UniProtKB/TrEMBL annotation:
Residues 25-93 are annotated as: Disordered. It comes from marine metagenome. Residues 65-82 have a biased composition (Basic and acidic residues). This is Uncharacterized protein.
Amino acid sequence: MIVNAISGKQDSLHRNTEARLAQLRASTSEVPPAARVGDDHEHHQQVLTGLLEGPVGEPSEQEAEERQQAQKTERGDLRKTQMGELVANIDNY
C-alpha cells in the first residue's frame, strides 16, 4: 500500500474501501439528525438511571452455576474452533 501511494497507483482493495466509505457517508447524511444513533439522550438517560438505581443482589447458587457452565461451554467451543483452525492451517505454522 505504501509503495502504491508513493508511485501514485491505487490497488483494487483501496479503491473498493474508498467507494464503500463514500457510500456509507452518503447514506448517513441522508438520515435525519434526530434518527441517528446516539441522539436519543432521553432513552440513554433512562437506561443509565436504571443501572444506577441501586446495587444488584448476588446471583443465586443455581444462577452462578449456570453462568459457570455456560462459560466452560464457550471456552470449550473456542478451543475446538482454534484447534480446527490450527489443524486446517498446520502447513502455515
